[in-house]
Amino acid sequence: MQKCKKCPKCERTLSVVQNFHMVKHRGRLRPNSYCKKCAVAWTNAWRKTKPSKYFRVRKQQYAIKNSDKVKRWSMRSRWKRIGLDPNVVEAFIAIHNGVCDICGEPPNGMTLAVDHCHDTMILRGLLCSNCNVGLGMFEDNPELLRRAIKYLKTR
């Protein structure tokens, strides 16, 4: 014979074993006041009305404890969003020597940018912030870069 209990929220009489979470109270297990469905609904409603108290704090705590995981997840998400395979990019970075492919300098405080062709999505190299911005300003146009070289040589 199963024990039954009435949920004060929905006023249904339900089986304790299947429909109520068991909570520890004063050293012994007892069924929660509300049934599982009502308890979940209440929790979800509370989380929606108190996002700053629940989500932001938990997210910050997790980010502090797992900063490497969060950074890796962020990078992989960004690569996916622009159409690159994160596993290929990570392998590419692992075999790279950690310096910019244009100026040969290590990154100054920032991570190296993953340079890729925007049409073919083929990886070209890793660039420091300055070189990456410079290429971006020339819109990956080799003719503009040749004109810039010519201009620099004549001055």
SSE layout and pairing:
Elements: E1 4-6, E2 13-15, H1 16-19, E3 22-25, E4 28-31, H2 36-49, H3 51-65, H4 67-81, H5 86-95, E5 113-116, E6 123-127, H6 129-137, H7 142-154
Antiparallel strand pairs: 1-2, 3-4, 5-6
Helix pairs in contact: 2-3
What can you tell me about this protein's structure?
The chain has 2 domains: 4-63, no CATH class; 68-154, 3-Layer(aba) Sandwich (His-Me finger endonuclease fold). It has 7 helices and 6 strands; from the N terminus they run ββαββααααββαα. The chain has helices spanning 16-19, 36-49, 51-65, 67-81, 86-95, 129-137, 142-154, and strands at 4-6, 13-15, 22-25, 28-31, 113-116, 123-127. It has a two-stranded antiparallel ribbon. A hairpin with a 6-residue loop joins strand 5 and strand 6 (123-127). Helix 2 (36-49) packs across helix 3. The protein is rod-shaped. The relative contact order is 0.06.
